[in-house]
Amino acid sequence: MGLLSIIRKIKKKEKEMRILMVGLDNSGKTTIVLKMNGEDTSVISPTLGFNIKTIIYQKYTLNIWDVGGQKDYKILLEELL
Ligand SMILES: Nc1nc2c(ncn2[C@@H]2O[C@H](COP(=O)(O)OP(=O)(O)OP(=O)(O)O)[C@@H](O)[C@H]2O)c(=O)[nH]1
Ligand SMILES: [Mg+2]
Predict the structure, then answer these.
(1) GO MF terms on file (predicted)?
(2) Are 67 and 73 in contact (CB under 8 A)?
(3) Which of 26, 27, 43, 53 has its Cβ near the most Cβ atoms within 10 Å?
(4) Inside any domain, residue 72
(5) Which residues constitute the domain of residue 38?
(6) 10-29 residue pLDDT tens
(7) Predicted model pTM
């Protein structure tokens, strides 16, 4: 199932949504976000805290929260979930 089908299924009416990227540190979360946005992925550093990137995908606005996977950020993640 593609990203657009998943989005359509979850929220048929809402055009803006928040996507939380979670996973272990060094697992490739930031790389995925950058790739989705067509950005360079040749130099990537561990995410400190979190970064928010807004991507317009067809008629949807996706606010992607890319959360650092290091154990120091587990408390932060619990707050965001
Ligand atoms: N071989 C390979 N390396 C990858 C892939 N995706 C990401 N990487 C590399 O893995 C490393 C970590 O990628 P990140 O995107 O920073 O991982 P992250 O999950 O955001 O890490 P944190 O921010 O620490 O939580 C980087 O050096 C990437 O270039 C992949 O599909 N294959
Ligand atoms: Mg990262």
Answers:
(1) GTP binding; GTPase activity; metal ion binding
(2) yes
(3) 53
(4) yes
(5) 15-80
(6) 666 678 888 999 999 999 99
(7) 0.85
